[in-house]
Amino acid sequence: MSPSVPLQEMIRAIRSARTQCEERGVIQRECAAIRAQFRQTDNGGRSHNLAKLLYVHMLGYPAHFGQMECVRMIASPRYSEKRVGYLGAMMLLDEKQDASLLITNSIKNDLSHSNQYVQSLALCTLACMGSAEMCRDLAPEIDRLLRSSNSYIKKKAALCAVHIVRKVHDLGELFVPSARSLLSEKNHGVLHGAVVLITELCERSPETLERFRKTVPDLVQIMKGLVISGYSPDHDVAGVSDPFLQVRILRLLRILGRNNEAASDAMNDLLAQVATNTDSTKTVGNAVLYETVLTVLDIKSESGLRVLAVNILGRFLLNNDRNIRYIAMTSLQKIVSTDHNAVQRHRGTIVDCLKDQDASVKRRALELSLALVSASNIRSMMKELLIFLSSCPPELRAQAASGIFNAAERYAPSKRWHIDTILHVLTTAGGDVRDETVPNLIQLITNTSELHCYTVHKLYRALFTDISQQPLVQVACWCIGEYGDLLLKGECQETEAVQVTEDDVLDALEIVLQSHMSTPTTRGFALTATMKLSTRITDNVDRIRSIVSIYGSCIDVELQQRAVEYNALFKKYDHMRAAVLERMPVIQKNSLGQTNGELSEEPMKESQPGKVKQEETALPPQPAGQVVDLLDLLGGSQEPLQPGSSVGGSASTQLTAAPSSAGGDLLDLLGGFEPTPLAPAPTVTVYEKNGVTLTLSCEQQSESGLTVTLTASNSTDSDISGFTLQAAVPKSVQLQMRAPSRDSLPAHGGAKLTQLVVLNNPNKVNLKMRIRVSYTCQGSVVQDMVQVDSFPGL
């Protein structure tokens, strides 16, 4: 291929290449010819060669050697060469390269050129790749062009001014007077550039925003003219007059009316007119309506106008276009907390979107459906959500199950309904629920004493139906161990009674213990349940003893430890087995969400001596032998108790236990520890923003080990979902993040989220941690970063 071939011939030769290697060969030969011609001083085909080089650049091949040629051609007096030179500068140069500074003077000269098309080339180039230094040098020239009489130049200058404001915020004040005057123009291109410039200025400066609020009547008049104007072939798009300018004006009105009642009142009538007169059958009309809805919902609009906006979004939900349905649900998600009743009217349409084939639409519909659940519709909404859970994609099951649990906990009409709903979720998607589901359900069952018989019968049936759902199997084993006597009685008023024998119950637990699908945690539940049944049945105690003894040599350390301890109960402490394995007490939660046995941050009240004496006299006398046996189980006692002293620990009685030398105590298996008073770990607030508070406390486990507890709470009026924490530490520090207690934060501090972070610092480096906080509030995703340089208590 000769060096003088035209651009079309080079393109044809490149496209006819059969392999990539052949294409590279063609381009390398042509680039070599272009380089050679660039070196010639008298070159008549400069623009021709640079055009070919730009095509090579578009294909992804290196073309940096043409940068200086662009600079030379920009300085040329010929328009044909200037045009290609400016195009090459926009493609081959950027603000990071020194060559871009060489064209500053050429651009300044061309901005004063008598030809408007040459001025346009300079304006487009500056708006595309102008650096901060170039913007500072040329800003006065742009302001001068904004005041010119040529509409073609003014619209280009307005867009160039937008780039300058984005690059150098301080130059915004320079363009304020000119931008205000541009609103009186009749040319739509100039108006469009003026609105974009004013929007940028208002977003950058609150003072400028206050000054431009006075232009709201002018913007309203421009918008009314567009809405009521007749057919204009220059601006009509699918029956809508200049929708691009309408969208830009609506966005600017949204900024000007935010948190300002006077500006909002001035635009209420206009927004109602646009919402009722715009055709919604075309995509163009839907774009204008969507911007109208966003403006109505963001300003201080009237209640009737907000209902009209929600109804427009409801019509969007019926659209066949999935993109329109998606943005409708995204907008409804943002306002469901403030306009809950208005969104409730479209509940049926939103629920129907759960059946959509698109995964993104399904996810939005699920989030919105969960937000619409209330005490009045809990039964109907939960029915739809459970149907969705049975057929939803795997990636949505965890989110759906978590949302159903939260809604059931908030609005459950009865305890039985609450238990049935959770069991239904565990049966359907047990493998996708969070770790705290099992203890939460156990607490609910424990506190509902009137449903113990009903629950144990239902879980026993579920255990035989499917043992692959591990959380369900764990709860079933726990209930069988606690309430196995109710199961064996076969008397249940709440449900149809099932005649179950002792062998049937033990067979079911053995199936769980031996199943390959059972996790070590599930086997631990089943082994404990089997042990507890030894005090609730009479004929199969020997069988239980043999089952427990088998796992005394289990490869799993946790199961082996349990089995050894249970064997010790059978052998040495059989007289205390019934007391140790009695039913669990009711698990209560205080206002801070702490369960029995957790330490409270508040100091314990000192007991009054008078009340202590009354409690002591109320306790029945117990034989000394039983007391000594109980203390022997807890570590051994060498001193006999004085008569009249109370067992169970009144505040005025101190028990001193010496370690036993026999070595057969249960606590000896765990190392023979002695109880020590626990002091609350010091807590420091590391993040507090937008109503979200994150506190940090730490506890030294060893010389190099540290456990950090992160606790998050929400004091706003709306729920927060998708709350996640990510942590980073120096490379020499080992970090392990445990699963969080939940993934959402209810409003008004309804519940807290806790997450443990285990750190190992073997090299004793200066410990620092960077935490990323991510969450979704009212449909908006928030991400923040916080650095922790010191840890409390260290």
Automatic annotation (TrEMBL):
UniProt keyword list: Cytoplasmic vesicle, Golgi apparatus, Membrane, Protein transport, Transport
GO CC terms in record: AP-1 adaptor complex
Example GO BP: vesicle-mediated transport
Region (Disordered): 591-622, 638-659
Membrane topology label: Peripheral membrane protein
Chief place of localization: membrane
Compositional bias (Polar residues): 639-659
Matches recorded under InterPro entries: Adaptor_Complx_Large_Subunit, AP1_complex_gsu, ARM-like, ARM-type_fold, Clathrin/coatomer_adapt-like_N, Clathrin_a/b/g-adaptin_app_Ig, Clathrin_app_Ig-like_sf, GAE_dom
Subcellular localization, as worded in the UniProt entry: Cytoplasmic vesicle membrane; Endomembrane system; Golgi apparatus
Residues in coiled coil: none
SUPFAM superfamilies: ARM repeat, Clathrin adaptor appendage domain
Record carries keyword Chloroplast: no
Record-annotated GAE domain positions: 679-792
UniProt record similarity statement: Belongs to the adaptor complexes large subunit family.
Listed PANTHER family: ADAPTIN, ALPHA/GAMMA/EPSILON
Name of the featured protein: AP-1 complex subunit gamma
Native species: Poecilia latipinna
Classification lineage: Eukaryota, Metazoa, Chordata, Craniata, Vertebrata
